[in-house]
Amino acid sequence: MITNAAVLRQFGKPLEIEEVELLDPDPEEVIVKVAASGVCRTDLSIASGHLGNVPLPLVPGHEAAGTIVEVGTSVSNLKSGDHVLAVWIYSCNNCEYCLAGRPNLCKNGNTSLLNATLPGGKIKIKDKKTGRPIHHGSGTALHSDHAILNQRNVVKIPTEVPLDKASVVGCAVMTGVGAAINTAQIRPGSTVAVVGVGGVGINIVQGARIAGAEKIIVLDKYDSKLQAAPKFGATHSIMMDDSPKSKLLSITPDGVDYSFEATGNYHNMELAYSLIKPGGTTVIVGAESPTASISVPALDLVGSQKTIKGSWYGSTNPRYDAARYLNLYMSGKLMLDELISAKYEPSQINQVFSDMESGKIIRGILVH
Fold it and tell me: Is the pTM of this model over 0.85?
């Protein structure tokens, strides 16, 4: 199949829309006609080279929804015409993490993600002109009019859910809401701080609201994002200029029960830790450079019995959580329509990056 895709050939350079060839699906694979794909900050971090030596060239994109157009011979639970959303962790159901009920940590799924291949190391995208392989960014390569995926990287969804709205569930919602509900397990009546309210951070806010937090304090350097946060559940907003910690302590003098970092910046990770009260929990959600590290006061960590946790993909069980979050959306408790700040043509992907960096949008999607 010949299709159009956004291709990254050099870190720090603009992506180009190119014709690429998708090879025929293997027995366990499907081809999806992408209706819309969400542009995540991780896409920008990959394109800039911030996340390290990802194999190039590649098609980025790990958040999308669309319609099945072809299935492999061993696929029995999906058929042509089904509406699906993509998830960027393949769950093998055989490794120790999958068997322990932690499919987001699947050893095989994370290997394909880091190597930018389909599960098993397969590369099924080719340069139409040269025939050379093009890698599957995040193991999914969803900024494309069509995508080839393992059947375990897609979840069937109700046709009542608009595909453009469903497109942001596979990363922004699962990562953000999951961090609040699954990783932190926020208790009702708690106090929460969220550092960075982009696409993931704003969903941490939603997750905290759904979990019953009493105070939800958001911190960001963009006033536009602080202005948008209350409709998702934020109760207080702090501009991250001078003394954000002192501003937070004026709201809750002992600090917060839970803090979250969702910018992928090690300074902000350290800030998030400084905001929690004794016995509190900091959850690191943003993806930093593999060479970055954070520093926390060792005695404070012990003497105040604080906890630092990483949250990978919102500690999610993709099939279970996708259904759960879509049910919340259909019942009016989870906001998806409002989450999408703007819609773009696929050829505008570099503009989405620019708008993201300038704080103009929370989540932009490409409509294919």
Answer: yes
